[in-house]
Amino acid sequence: MEIRRNKRPKTGVETKFSLPKFKKYFLKNGSEIYTVKKTDLPIIKITFIINSGSKFDPKNKNGVSNLTGMCIDEGSGKYNALQLADEFDFLGAQFSIQSDSDITVLSLQVLTENFDAAFELLSFVILLPHFNENDFQREKRKVQTRIEQLKDAPDYIANSAFEYFLFGKAHPYAFPVIGISESIKEIEISNLKNFYKGFFKSRNTSIVAVGNFDDNKLLKKVENVFENWDNGEKISTQNLNGNKNKQKIYVVNKQDSVQTEIRLGHNSSKRDELDYFQKHILNLILGGQFSSRLNLNLREKHGYTYGIRSQFNYYKDDAYFSVSTSVSTENTAAAVNEILTELNKIRDGITDEELTFAKSSISRRFPLNFETYSQIASNIASKIIHNLPDDYFQKYLTNILNIKIEEVNSAAFKSIIPESALVVLCGDEKKINEQLSSLNLGDVVSVDYEQIYSE
Amino acid sequence: MKLLDIKSEKYTLKNGMEVILYNNNSFPLVAVNIWYKVGSAQEEKGKTGLAHLFEHMMFQGSENVPKEMHFKFIQEAGGTLNGSTSFDRTNYFEKLPSNELELALWLESDRMGFLLNSLDQEKLENQKSVVYNERLERYDNQPYGLAWELLISNLYNEGHPYSWATIGYLNDIKNYELDDVKNFFKKYYSSNNASLVVAGDFEAGKVKELISKYFESITANSEVKNISIKNEQLKSSKKIIHEDSVQLERIYLAWHSVKAFEKDDAELDILSDILAGSKNSRLHKKLVHELEIAQDIYAMQFSGKYAGHFMIVATAKPKKSLDEINKVINDELDLIINEGISSKELKKSKNGIKSGFIFSLQNLDSLADHLNLYNFYFGRPNSFMFDLERYNAVNEIDVMQVAAKYLKANCVDLRIVPKGKNGN
After folding, report:
1. In angstroms, rounded to a whole number, what is the distance separating the alpha carbons of residues A257 and A428?
2. d(CA B155, CA B330)
3. Mean pLDDT, chain B, integer
4. What angle do CA B40, B45, B47 make, to 5 degrees?
5. The pLDDT value given to residue B226
6. Chain centroid to CA A430: how far?
7. Which residues from chain B sit within 8 angstroms of residue A365, using beta carbons?
8. Residues 233 to 292 of B: which have CB under 8 A from any A CB?
9. Integer angstrom CA distances of residue B320 from A50, B145, B289, B299, B420
10. What is the interface pTM, i.e. ipTM, of the complex?
11. Which are the contacts of A393, defined by CB distance < 8 A and separation ≥ 6?
12. Is the dihedral of CA A220, A226, A228, A229 positive or negative?
């Protein structure tokens, strides 16, 4: 076979990818359920998505949603906490409960042969949590300790400080999902019980199931097990978008840090607004992957960092744009400067070549997002969370491929606003402040990392 | 189990490169995975971290691939890619739409055969700086980030190839010369020191032809000699206290154990699961759930080609003592050694391991990497079933015996404590 090494080999004939098809049903109790048939392995993945994230935490009791998620499997149905965990483990099942700002997700991955038994356990967790005082106190102490531990992690401090200063303390997304020390103290078991009663309802829940099963049988099973679940109503969402910031720098002091964690960004339009695809392409070029402008500049050209990325962060009811990286302390100001330069530069527009690259990368990557059971389930989950249309995935490629350069450029102009960027720098304050005067970026506020939430 | 019978074909090119093919056309993806049999164990004193730095240099372009284009070509094709370095090996992998197999073979062969001429001082200095920052971000600036380095440097004897961390010491990272990098390449990045896996959707009739097209003309270097290792036991137990900017004290206990896939390796894996692998595991139940003196607990059998160790790690709750935790751990080990484990505990572990094997088949990357792993150790890529059988064969007495054999010996007791707390 002749070989010409100096040329990229030609792409082969087009591959055939058939998008996994999901079906959507409503159960009698009001839950919606999405099913996908996947038969290559004897696995079932089932996910319960409950509209009950930390944005619903009662005032001054941040952390209730997360603690509720931690406590519902500390004894449920006929089992105590340890017995229940043992039952799942004995079935070789992977079961987890995760809370974030918008939702609580209960997720079960199990071999098909053990599905029925594991599903029964899952139903205990959702329908019959004990909420014993002892278990609650233990989990609460665990959370308090975890909050202390997180103060050691500069990346966590930077992220949570950034969100707190960006949203402002009255905003439902201002506080970390886990809560803060002061708010955890205020939480009592009655708060969890009330939260559970208010949000763990069939109409407030969506289910996604992926695996080798017969839809009718599965539906009947879910229907039977959850027949008497309190219906409630779907909790509606709030419209929160609209905060505008002025450029401001917060230096969060963490003495002896050898690096500075940098977060830089501002509010942005929500996920369901019309320029999502344009912003997706824009971000890919700016800082969404290895060959992005930001990474090529700060990592591959200057060597300031191990990596840098930008993203549009979409919560259900609000969104923001941010750039995140970690740089050696002496390069803090230089790095911030290069980031701002790149943000300003992209407002002048992208090139045709960049657009072609981005479209190709996103569209040809599309099949890879549906390889595993978990990937399929999580794609459908994100469709549910953001209220995307049922034909979202069918139209995805067309939506990406139809985008014109002017649309991306106009999104860049509208959505990247360096002059209103909030900057959070977490590191050695003294060494950072020495460098900041050169930047001329507006007010600098110094806070100790222990004191963020008293600001 | 039929599911775990991953039928692959293996052959060797004239230049010594091993090729492993696993064909599965159910999804239009193909994974390419190369192992070079070199890791940080092959490094010399003063040049630690070179194997990992080299992994970075492999993404800096080669004779026919300009800098930055390696990533760009793969990403433009919709693929994903990365590499990783361990004590024993360095791997490079990409997963792409199946019509881009040739692209991956072209890129991998170009950097295997034609890297040196494109290496220069500028690229080296840039990546030294990136790796320097990687070390700061992932080790020096992480809470407890230096524990691993402290642990292995105290556990393994001076000069033992597992006695330094893969990332390398900061001073060594600063001081690599271009010649170090070039010589490292010449010595280890040779076709006869590599194995290539192609897994997933490809045309069975065409793939071999493509592989020979790109790799056959690469000439082999001289044979890489196996390193000789002296595994010394600890003459006495060591206690090390290290201050770090952390809030909570943490204890690391480590004992010498066995190499990967050696007798007792699977037994020790199961022991680690019974001790700390689940909520109702023995140490989790005692330390975290009942006594609440630890925030978390973790145990593992770490095993590589040349050595292995068993470790238990626990973080103390505020104001709780590591001595007390240490005592509970040792009491529990004694209990296992004296009274054994229940058949239910054993069955639970085995069930989890079996499910884990099947869950792992979902991802083509992980499957391809396993084919290379099994080939590295046994010369037989299709060893999934063999591997699972190692665990199935373990009985209650075995677990009791490995606990007695390895965890009563001398150990390293490393404690990371908040600043100013030394001497507790």
Report:
1. 6
2. 19
3. 96
4. 65
5. 82
6. 33
7. 75, 78-80
8. 245-248, 278-280, 285, 288-289, 292
9. 37, 22, 14, 20, 17
10. 0.95
11. A19, A379, A383
12. negative
- Please state, as a whole number, how many other Cβ atoms lie within 10 Å of the Cβ of residue A274: 8
The set of residues, in sequence order, having a beta carbon less than 8 Å from that of A15 and lying 6+ positions away, is: A367, B28, B97, B98, B99, B201
pTM check: above 0.90: yes
Contact A303 B75 (CB under 8 A): no
For residues B63 and B121, the answer to whether their CB atoms sit within 8 Å is no
**A37, A209, A221 from A206: Cα distances, Å:** 17, 10, 16
Question: A440 in helix, strand or coil?
Answer: coil
What is the C-alpha separation between B36 and B359, in angstroms, rounded?
27
Beta bridge partners of A452: none
Helix extents (H) in A305-452:
332-346, 352-365, 373-385, 392-401, 405-415, 429-436
Contact yes or no for A306 and B110 at CB 8 A: no
Mutation target among A71, A89, A351, A363 for the B interface, most CBs of B within 10 A: A89
Task: Indicate whether B323 pLDDT > 60.
Answer: yes
Please name which of B220, B218, B210 lies closest in space to residue B103, comparing C-alpha atoms.
Answer: B210
Contact yes or no for B313/B246 (Cβ under 8 A): no
Is B132 touching A (CB cutoff 8 A)? yes
pLDDT-based confidence at residue B424 (cuts at 50, 70, 90): very low
The pLDDT, as a whole number, for residue A245 is 64
User: Measured over all CA atoms, what is the biggest interatomic distance in chain B, rounded to whole angstroms?
Assistant: 68
> Domains along chain A?
22-225 (3.30.830.10), 248-454 (3.30.830.10)
What is the C-alpha separation between B97 and A305, in angstroms, rounded? 31
pLDDT above 70 covers what percent of chain B?
99
Half-sphere exposure of B24 (CA within 13 A, CB side): 21
Which H/E stretch holds residue B294? strand B294-303
Pick out chain A residues at pLDDT < 50. Answer: none
Hey, are the CB atoms on B71 and A303 less than 8 Å from each other? no
Q: How far apart are alpha carbons A279 and A273 in whole angstroms? A: 11
* Residue in the structure block whose two tokens are 């990992």: B52
- Kindly report the nearest CA distance between residue A307 and chain B, in angstroms: 8
Residue from the list A151, A258, A357 with its beta carbon closest to the beta carbon of B141: A258
